[in-house]
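tool_call: predict_structure(chain=1)
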Amino acid sequence: MSADDAPREGHGHTPAETFRRLRRRVGLPPGFSVGGAVRHSVWRNVFHLVGGFRVVGSAPYEAMVVVANHQSHADTPALIAAFPAPYKPVVVAAGDYWFDDPWKARLLKLAIGAVPVRRHGGGGYESLIEGATEVLGSGSSLLVFPEGTRSTDGRLGRFRSGALRIAQEFDVPIIPVAVVGTRELLAKKGRLTPGPVEVRVGHPVNPHELTDMAPLVAQIEGMLAAGPPVPSRSRTWRVLRNHMSGPAGMAGAFGWGFAEAVSLPVTSEMYLVLVAAAHPRRVLPAAGFLAAGSVAGILVTRALTARGERPPAPLTTPAMRSRAAADLAAAGARGIWRQALNGVPVKVYAAEAGAAGVPAGPLAVHALGARGARSIVVGAVVGAAAGAAAPVLRRFYGPYLAAAGVTFAVGLGLVVRRWSR
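tool_result:
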């Protein structure tokens, strides 16, 4: 929102008196707020979903005036997403456009927490003062678009001085911010076009050291000239992809398969879903190592049980053990093929094979066939799905892990319940 250049003495006070009167209204940062946290989180995830979101730089934790370039209606949500909830950034919005309808005004308050100011008919600066008093007086930060309207070509318009005067009168830092990518995402009178957005935070400036907006404009121009936005990447995704890129990923698959066949209460293929999916091209090789580790674990569990040292088997039931024993008694080592679809953990089959004296050689051959076939099939599905969903997984790997973990936990609970009857 713009602020016109009306004289500061409009309230009947000298500049010094106005400064002293208003400065006392600046509050301490409000700290955590539910509304601010929800808006920050929601908008951040929306931007990640439609193309990616990244913040470069940081701001001091105090009440301040934030000035930014204006290219799109997406600018304000981007700034709210960039500043954590304790800053509680609040934008001043054109009252004649955004607050002319009660329902639209309520929606705007809910979505971005805006404060109305007048653009026409005089009194723009006085209205901005009123809005600033409400925002800065509570310790929140004030967001201002000094151009006053959205750019249609990406170039900066004239920066009006109202934001600087506000920062001087309230004695708070003024900080320039460049919002990049929103014009391509949602241009003025354009359609939503998915793409990355980046918020670049400049260096805070003591407003009393400025006589005009030129230094702030120069900072924003420099940040805009740094190039297009860089698509964001989940840190979890980067770590797991690097892990899967080298031998550690295959070693992890072998170890996971081994541990599941001895005692670990998870299915071996969860390694493919949780870890290997970060690198779709490495899913099938990981499936092979997973099967090899599983066979090794089966043989170790069989040997330990044959010696009377049955390994711990959490989340297993007597019914599972009875089913595994019956399958092995009926078909010998080939009975392990029935494990692929019945939900009984492979470690139970391995232990019952040891207890029944099933020979290690045939057990290894059939276990490799059964476990290998299952791992390859699951690996092919996971690899294809992860490849198709890669643009989203790169940005949302954390939520993906959480959803996959919950799904697995629910499925495991249902399996245990079924075999507890």
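agent: The beta strands are 53-56, 65-68, 90-94, 115-117, 142-144, 174-180, 197-201. Proceeding to next step.
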